[in-house]
């Protein structure tokens, strides 16, 4: 149950971050279909890669966490760009890649700060509703 909630919340956060980045950068083309596909793919890619990055972070301490988060975000964007049709999701130019990566990474860091609290609150609420029924 917690994993499903985490997936939905992450997808919502990534969807908002993609809209913000696309609004800020002319060379980040994003159609509605690309937004849907890109959000879904990026969320799945980053959640799968997060386990690998977590084990590396434990091994190499905090500097790996910072750098690993940026690399994870960039790889997630790269995979999303590769697997989404160009007309729907397309990043062009090194500056756009750098700044979109930074925006999505920073938003993800903020999201991660509240992620566990949101999940615990939803989980506690669902337990409370089940007990009262």
Give the topology, please:
Layout: H1 2-24, E1 28-30, H2 32-83, E2 89-91, H3 94-132
Antiparallel strand pairs: 1-2
Structure description:
- This protein has one domain (2-120).
- It is 86% helix and 5% strand.
- The protein contains three helices and two strands.
- It has helices at 2-24, 32-83, 94-132, and strands at residues 28-30, 89-91.
- It has a two-stranded antiparallel sheet.
- Helix 2 (32-83) crosses helix 3.
Mean pLDDT: 84
The CA-CA distance between the termini, in Å, is 19 Å
As a whole number of angstroms, the C-alpha radius of gyration is 16 Å
* Unreliable stretches: none
- Secondary-structure element order, as H and E? HEHEH
Shape: globular
Binned strand content: under 5%
Question: What about the largest sheet?
Answer: 2 strands, antiparallel
Instruction: Give helix % range.
Output: over 70%
| Count of β-strands | 2
Q: Counting H and I runs of at least 4 residues, what is the number of helices?
A: 3
Protein name: 4 TMS phage holin, superfamily IV
Organism: Jiangella alkaliphila
Transmembrane segments: 32-52, 64-83, 89-111
Keywords: Membrane, Transmembrane, Transmembrane helix
